[in-house]
Amino acid sequence: MADKQQQTPERQFSVQRVYIKDVSFESPNAPELFRGEWTPKHTLNLNTQINDLDQDHYEVVLEVTVTVKVGDKTAFIVEVQQAGIFSIAGFPEQELGPMLGAYCPSLLFPYAREVVSDLVSKGSFPHLVLQHVNFDLLFAQHQQQRAQQEAQQGGTAPTEAVQH
């Protein structure tokens, strides 16, 4: 029994640091845009990058880009790279992917949402709060797309960042 316990490493997960890696706010059509009717349409793009730092330490970067247009004019573009360093040990390989591709981004998203909201307010635009994102579902969809690409390409797909 003692041998079996020694073979199974203890699972450990901790957030070492959460930080902004890059941030940008652009309002290319201000101040003219403030004078017209406010009928915005927005798009949200998400991307996740995973960087292996060393044994059991990973950097996960959640890239959030929000573009808001009024008609054909861009009101603003907000780009945030919210990053975190995570210590993850003792998890089997099949659980590591979902942790890095879904769980860690879901921990980073509230920080990115706050940065987006603050920047939009400071740009003198109406309050913007991004809605919850189901990173588990996005990760599963990405894995399914990747498996389909591998099947079409004969079993090998290029290494890429998880994109949502």
> Mean pLDDT, as a whole number?
90
Q: Percent range for helical residues?
A: 25-40%
Instruction: Work out the count of structural domains.
Output: 1
Task: Report the CATH topology name.
Answer: Bacterial Protein-export protein SecB
* Low-pLDDT runs: 157-164
Please report which band the strand proportion falls in: under 5%, 5-15%, 15-25%, 25-35%, 35-45% or over 45%: 35-45%
For the CA atoms, what is the radius of gyration? Answer: 20 Å
Order of helices and strands: HEEEEHHE
Summarize the structure.
With 164 residues, the protein is of the alpha+beta class. The chain has one domain (12-149): SecB-like (Bacterial Protein-export protein SecB), CATH 3.10.420. The chain has helices at 2-7, 93-122, 135-152, and strands at residues 12-26, 40-54, 57-70, 73-89, 162-163.
Describe the 3D structure:
- It is built from 3 helices and 5 strands; from the N terminus they run αββββααβ.
- Helix 2 (93-122) crosses helix 3 (135-152).
- The chain has one domain (12-149): Bacterial Protein-export protein SecB, CATH 3.10.420.10.
- Mean pLDDT is 90; it is low at 157-164.
- A hairpin with a 2-residue loop joins strand 2 (40-54) and strand 3.
- The longest helix is centred in the middle third of the chain and has 30 residues, at 93-122.
- With 164 residues, the protein is of the alpha+beta class.
- It has helices spanning 2-7, 93-122, 135-152, and strands at residues 12-26, 40-54, 57-70, 73-89, 162-163.
- Its main location: cytoplasm.
- It is found in: Cytoplasm.
